[in-house]
């Protein structure tokens, strides 16, 4: 059984040897071959030929080396260093939850005072969450930033509600009760 790649390489070696013998005979007879022919034979064989070195200063000729086979070295896979797995910051997640609660409390109107207090706590937790996510392998910076915005927004909006600066919502208005009555009116006959 013949393996094609080995057979092809053997044929290329035989052609190289025949060419080298003909070349040696040609030089002996005074025939000169072109460098392009030498390169073509080297390329056909899949090898890189080493050129002849000039004669050294003391007159000793250097040896002509034959074609050099290319060596393919197997490459090892690159292993990336792995550290501890990234984890989410508990403080950032807690700040986000309290921020959503504070924003909803302020929007009710009746619970605006509690929403302001929860918004202040959210802002402090969000700042702690931002500092906690500075460490390597601790995720949750976007959660902390969103909680910070929600907390500040709840405080500012809650102050506007408590001071009765907004016409559509006030501490005396019960927006949750109004929403419940509206939903009851819409779904009385459907369920």
From TrEMBL:
Segments passing through the bilayer: 90-108, 114-132, 144-169
Keyword Kinase set for record: no
UniProt keywords, alphabetically: Membrane, Transmembrane, Transmembrane helix
Listed Basic and acidic residues bias regions: 8-41, 49-78
Keyword Transmembrane: yes
Disordered: region residues: 1-84
Superkingdom of this protein's organism: Bacteria
Entry protein name: DUF4190 domain-containing protein
Lineage: Bacteria, Bacillati, Actinomycetota, Actinomycetes, Micromonosporales
